[in-house]
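Q: How would the structure tokens look for this protein?
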Amino acid sequence: MGKISYINDAPVYFGLDHGLLPPWLEMVSDVPAVLNQKIKTGQIKISPVSAAFYAMNHKELLLLSDLSISCNGRVMSVILASNYSIEDLDGKKVIFSRESASAAAFLKMIFRKRNISPIFEVGPTNNYQQISKSADAALIIGDAALLHPWGQVFEYCIDLGQLWYEMTKLPFVFAVWVVRRSFAAKHPSLVREIHKLLLESKDLGYHNIDKVIEAGKNKLGLERSMVKEYFDLLYCDLDDKKIKAMALFFDSLFDQGILNEKVDIEFFI
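A: Here is the predicted structure in token form.
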């Protein structure tokens, strides 16, 4: 089973990290883009993946209910650091993180809607001082967005969660938990058991959120107040409003030609 190597899914895995993990279940921790590929190739069967990756592969995957990484406005860990406003990035160089599909798809959708055509380049985005010299803007996600003072080297730091909320007044779903359809068909009872474990683990995480915050502080070396603010902004459920928001996101990606077909959102039952 996959696990995102950032701190953003720490509440979901708290229980599994503190005694709930059965000996027969192996955990694979990595960045979203790697988990996306591992579930696509069948190396892992259940994992959090980028919401946009789910949309692109929805015929092979089923969603697990009540699990996501979402925000309802500002998110802090998904930003466009830029020397220009979005409208002025036409023809400018924008570096995309290698690590996420959802944020990249969202940003491309925004550019297409506004008839803006930047020059895209995929590359590492961890060295904030180097990026500021080599690109006009960069999409930064995950722990790197929290760790570095992007506002000191770029004129604009645009929070994509906030940008989506201003456009739609809806939450944004960055990641979802999925199971391969073929695996679910062969092992439905096992999938139900793992899903139940994930939900129990998440409940324990929110009952021990102070410990989750402390672990995040220690991992990243940030002030506790900043880590607390970050977790206050994150949601790990998947209620009807978030499903509606996700459907709107997928429809927007289809309308802008980023998805080849409309997505029928389907859950494992």
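DSSP finds 13 helices and eleven strands in the chain.

The CA atoms of residues 11 and 205 lie 4 Å apart.

Upvote if useful.
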